[in-house]
Amino acid sequence: MQHDSITPYKSDSEKHVQIAKMFDNISNKYDALNSILSIGIHKGWRKKCVNRLKILQPQHILDVATGTADFAIECSKLHPKKVIGIDISEGMLNIGRKKIQDKKLDTIISLQQSNAETADFTDSSFDAIVIGFGVRNFQNLEKGLTNLQRMLKPEGKLIILEFSFPKNTIVKWFYNFYLFKLTPFVGKLVSKDNRAYTYLAESIEAFPNNEKLVAILKNCGFTKASYNSLFFGVSAIYEASK
Ligand code: SAM
What we know:
Elements: H1 15-38, H2 41-51, E1 60-64, H3 70-75, E2 82-87, H4 90-102, E3 109-113, E4 126-132, H5 141-151, E5 152-163, H6 169-191, H7 196-206, H8 211-219, E6 223-230, E7 235-241
Parallel strand pairs: 1-2, 1-4, 2-3, 4-5
Antiparallel strand pairs: 5-7, 6-7
The structure holds S-adenosylmethionine (SAM).
């Protein structure tokens, strides 16, 4: 099945409407479930991504699909002038705003409701753009990536952190069990949303990862696109320039 036709609720609403509703539904439990299901490993992955931006010393950073703002908060460690986080789920943003306030980062980080595919920041306005576990949920992947390329400064860097699928047969067997059995069971139990964590598994399986996503990035106007696998290939960091 085509990745962009995988939707959470399989209803008539457009994908972005279903995605926003799903993340609104699970927003209160999102951070806890992330930590339970990844045994905290996801934090180290965001750190790795941010380390790749150190040399660039970005002053203006856009965190796309910021959710509860973990990536934006990690980016603030680079001492930028401004980090803007955008997301389509107001429920996720509200949790993020609270975390930013508690950490007294509200002079650096601001969050706003906006769709990556239609966000209208001026051309070439960000030194770096990051996206953690967001591109897989775009309604139109190419439209979203092309819009991000437009907003990136020349020589600016795009970093994508996204789940992928291991190639090794034995790892794949364990990952399939984890993704299609354990994750939906725990996810449903904790979040009370029947579909969110089944959608997670289905969307990861269908998403064009590794070399395929690199090719799509190049088609969307990015240069020097590459990827590195993390943790036996269950996730990957993609890096591209304008
Ligand atoms: N980046 C955060 C992190 O690393 O934990 C949150 C990731 S969460 C799995 C995915 C987020 O992407 C959700 O908050 C969802 O609302 C957002 N999202 C999905 N499609 C989007 C789009 N087209 N534009 C902006 N945000 C989007």
